[in-house]
Structure formats: C-alpha cells, structure tokens
Design brief:
Among the domains are: 1-10 and 28-152, Rossmann fold; 406-508, ANL, C-terminal domain (GMP Synthetase, Chain A, domain 3, 2-Layer Sandwich). The protein has 15 helices and 26 strands. Helix 2 crosses helix 3 (62-73), helix 6 crosses helix 7 and helix 8 packs across helix 9.
Length: 509
C-alpha cells in the first residue's frame, strides 16, 4: 500500500463523489485521479523518477493536490514547503534536499525568479509557460491518462517536511508511507471521519498536521476536501457555512481572531463536529473564550510534533469542560507517551519532566543528519523538548519548551506561566516572554507586550498586576511594547526574533 493508491482506490469506489472544492470549482475523485495520471506521465517524460525530490511551493489549491499525488505516483519524494518562504529560504531547501524539480504557483512563482537560472532544476508553474518555466496545465493537457501504478511500499520514503527553523536552519524530516498512514488513520478514527465528512483546509498543507492528519486522513475515508489558499476569519466563517464543514484544523491564532469577529453569531457553524486546534498552546481562559464565541462544545486539542508524524496526545471535546488548557491524558492511536527526567526515568505526578513519544508515526530521521536524529530519537522514543507535568487525574499540562526555559540566578522560570498570567490583563492583547542576558543572574525575564492601546508606565502597570499572581522571581524585570508578535505560518511565536529585537534595543541604548 502507498499514499498514491488512496486516490486511485477512491476514484474506483466513488468515481462521481466530490473530492475537491477549490473556489467555484468542484472535482470528482475520478477527475482528480485522471488529472494526476496525466501529470505523472508528463513529469516522468521530463526525467522525474523514483527517489527524486520535488519541491512543491504552493498555497492550498487544486494544483497542490495534483502535484502531490503525481510526484508520489512516480515513486519520487515530495517536499512541500510554505508558500510564504523567501527565495533564500527556498534555495536552502532545494540545495539541502537535492531537489530535481520545483513546482510553484503562478501567484508566487516570481519570488523564485532569482533562482531559475542559477539553480539546476526543472522549473514548473501553474499558468502560462515563460522563459525558464514549464506550464503545469500544459503538462497535464499533454499527458497520458492511462493509470500510472506507484511502485512504492509502506516501507519506502515518500515525504520530507522541513521544520519551521525557529531555532536555526530548517531540518528535513523524512517520512515513509507507513509513518504517514499511522497518523492519518489515527486522525480519521479519533475524529470519526468518514465518506460523508467535509474537511476545510486553510492551514498550509506544507505542514504536517494539515497534510498528514487531515488531508491524507480524509483521503483514507473518501471525504470531501474544501481548499482555501489563505486564512481570514471572514473566509473561515463563510466557507464553514456554505459547505457545511464537519472538520476544521487551525492554529490557535486562527480561533482567537475569528472569535473576535463582530458578526460571528450571524453564521451557521452547527455542522462542525470537530473544531481541532494545535501547533501552539491555548490557555484555559482562551479555550473558554473561543468555545463561548463559537457556541460549541466540540473543541479538540491536538498535541504532537512534526517529527512524530505528527502524533501525540489529544484532549477530547468531552474533556474540555474540566481540563481546558491541558493536552490530554492518554496517547492517541498508534502512539505512547511518557514524561521523564534527565535520566529517562518517569517523573511523579506534579513533577516537571520532558514529554517523550513513541509510535509508528515517528519519522525515519532527519534527512542527511544522523547525529541530530540520534540525539532526538533514543531507543525508539522521540524526545520532544517540551516540559510538562501530570496532574492528580493524569492529565498533561505543558509547562514550556525546554529550550525556552529561563534560568535566572539559578532558578527556573517557565515563560508560558508568565505569559498566561499577563494575558489576563484586560488591556493586553498578546504577550511573549523570553530570557535575555544579565551580567549577574545569567538571564533575566523580559516581556514583549501587545496592547489594545498604549499603556503609560507599562512596567509598573504589569508588575502591579502580577504581584498576587506570580512569585516575585517570575515577574519580568523588563518590558517592551511592540505592534505585534512575530509568528511563523503555524502561529508559533518566533522567540529568536524577539531576542534579536532586544539585542538591537540594548545596543542602541
């Protein structure tokens, strides 16, 4: 079994069922499969073969789906990358992955114009062919519709996803078909997907959860996929209402922004069976706010890492009433979870340790980096770098990222705890806490704050507000107001950017 066969099987089982909705275009499973065969045959004629790497630089559009399956159908390895990356970032991935071809969308291909004549690759884009670029639509039109049979087995390598690079150069996470099947079936079963399900894809399909959990998971069961190239609160509400969406996955920021939409209550969102979120934490207060605004009891928290497939734990809708803010108690299907100390021993309830995961979804390894792979996966367990504790009922609460923990004067400070406390301030919209150098204490705590309107004497106001909420050593000593927090496409705060802002401010002063 391989991923390409999912589409071919659905085309035989549900030939006339709508597989994709992209704007005003609706396509059946048979139509999508025929297009994929045509494109695969044309790519083969260009020399794309088993084991070749093909970079996919597109938003969530029907052409992404065509290219994704066509590349896999040839036994080549797909490398989907975020459509917002710059030419320099794309070149690094092309070079590192040794990509033989790049398939881009007409909306954004010009971002890569500087690379076309200096990077030796096959360049393809949607729309018309121009100098240096072949036309995807022409390749489809000239291709042979005869079935192309994928030669891969479940053990073969199929996909490289590049991490966001929040702490350095992106790492290529290499997956086999078995890895992806494990997490796709997990998501389909845990959220009760079936052929009647209608999935809305607004988060980038270049990322593991949208792609492997929801797109491939939906393909497993023959669901209908609604594609959206961008996210906005208005688009989310309109598409859910228009297409009677049953499953949606979004970054926490997508829910928080939509929850503030002035006309949210005018939309019919009753069709949604699972509002899933993950990729960054939501506090208990934020979860309760979103649930109230969306008028739903169907929120589901997903926790996992790209390197795990992603797989990990989840907090079911039924558990949100009492454990909102937790990432759940038990590992999801095909996964195990433990919280361990620095020696790998299980910690007691209430004690802080590192989350480690094991399961069939765990990556084969970091591409071309055996040393980093060995550091991350030990005896079959993936070390996540996330610090957490279990409460008296066994539920897991994320304390912080191990790398983000601040050691000030020999005492551990967990930024997430400070951030959650500051977010309770009625004038604070968003906040991020980082450790910055201090000549005596090693590090000191600094808060970057986004407010509704300027706060005079920001430091004094925040310190006053935190006095009865945090121990004095946890209260930030430094504050800086900024217009917005820097985030990547999945909503994760780029704390290294904030440290750079601090260094620039310190240098000027």
């Amino acid at each position: 079994m391989n991923i390409s066969k999912l589409l071919a099987r659905n085309a035989r089982k549900f030939p006339h069922k709508i597989a994709l909705i992209d704007g005003d275009v609706s396509l059946s499973y048979r139509e999508v499969d025929d297009t994929v065969n045509r494109l695969a045959s044309s790519l083969a004629s260009l020399g794309i073969k088993r084991g070749d790497k093909v970079v996919l630089y597109m938003p969530n559009v029907k052409e992404f789906v065509y290219a994704y399956f066509a590349v896999l159908r040839l036994g080549a390895i797909i490398v989907p990358i975020n459509a917002r990356l710059t030419a320099q970032e794309v070149q690094y991935i092309i070079d590192h992955s040794e990509a033989k071809a790049v398939i881009a969308h007409d909306w954004i291909y010009q971002e890569l114009a500087s690379l076309v004549h200096k990077v030796d690759a096959i360049w393809v884009k949607t729309g018309e062919a121009i100098e240096g670029w072949r036309s995807l639509s022409q390749l489809i039109a000239s291709g042979d519709a005869s079935p192309v049979v994928c030669p891969l087995s479940e053990e073969d390598e199929t996909t490289i996803l590049y991490t966001s690079g929040t702490t350095g150069k992106p790492k290529g996470v290499l997956f086999t078909a078995r890895n992806i099947f494990a997490v796709a079936t997990m998501m389909a079963l845990e959220t009760k997907m079936d052929k009647h399900s209608r999935l809305l894809h607004m988060m980038p399909l270049s990322h593991s959860a949208p792609l492997h959990l929801f797109f491939v998971g939906g393909m497993y069961v023959g669901a209908t996929h609604v594609l959206s190239p961008t996210f906005s609160p208005e688009a989310l509400l309109e598409l859910v209402t228009k297409h009677q969406i049953t499953h949606f996955f979004g970054a926490p920021v997508a829910y928080l922004l939509t929850a503030k939409h002035p006309r949210l209550h005018e939309y019919d969102l009753s069709s949604v069976q699972y509002w899933t979120y993950g990729g960054a934490p939501l506090s208990a207060n934020e979860v309760q706010f979103v649930a109230k605004q969306f008028r739903t009891n169907r929120l589901m928290c997903l926790y996992g890492l790209t390197e795990a497939g992603p797989n990990g734990t989840y907090l079911s809708p039924e558990e949100h009433a009492t454990k909102a803010g937790s990432v759940g108690k038990d590992a999801a299907l095909h996964c195990e979870v433990k919280i361990v100390d620095e020696h790998g021993n299980d910690v007691l309830p209430g004690e802080i340790g590192e989350i480690i995961l094991a399961g069939e979804g765990t990556m084969k390894g970091y591409y071309k980096d055996e040393e980093k792979t060995a550091e991350t996966v030990k005896n079959g367990w993936l070390y996540t770098g996330d610090l957490a504790r279990r409460d008296e009922d066994g539920y897991i609460w994320i304390v912080d990222r191990k790398k983000d923990m601040i050691i000030s004067g020999g005492v551990n400070v967990y930024p997430k705890e400070v951030e959650d406390a500051l977010k309770l301030h009625p004038a604070i919209v968003d906040v991020a806490v980082v450790g910055v150098p201090h000549p005596e204490w090693g590090e000191t705590v600094k808060a970057f704050v986004v407010t509704k309107e300027p706060i005079e004497q920001l430091a004094e106001e925040c310190e006053r507000f935190l006095l009865d909420k945090l121990a004095d050593y946890k209260i930030p000593k430094l504050y800086e107001a900024i217009p917005e927090l820097p985030r990547n496409a999945t909503g994760k705060i780029l704390k290294q950017v904030l440290r750079g802002i601090h260094n620039e401010t310190a240098t000027r002063s």
